[in-house]
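Structure tokens please, single chain.
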Amino acid sequence: MLWLKLMLVILISEIGERAMCSGSGPVPSVKESEKTPYSLPQESLINDTSDGCNRQLLPYLDENGMGVLTVNCTKYCTGDKQATDVNGNPCIFKVKQAAKPGKVKVKEGSCRNGTCVRGSTRPPWRLVVLGKPSEED
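Here you go.
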């Protein structure tokens, strides 16, 4: 029964994601969705385009300064092509909602052959304040 509920949640999230992303490029597969923090609001992410390929980044600020984490180690390119992000780029390995609204906890990994993998050590949870849409005057 639990397995059925899990499959239903994944299916509903896929359908919802397809509806939200129609016309904005290919939708990630179920496997990618499990590793991709689909619950992150789009206004908190930075769209980075280079060489005709698009990837999304989550900016953060901590005691060491500013940085960005790749949301998905697969970049989507024009013509329904895909490319992998550079091996070693920091990425979001896990994400979960923080206790306070507007914040998430993420574990950092590194891109390896198009997949975000955890290193040999267990990374600590990093608290990230989600950005809000800018208001234009």
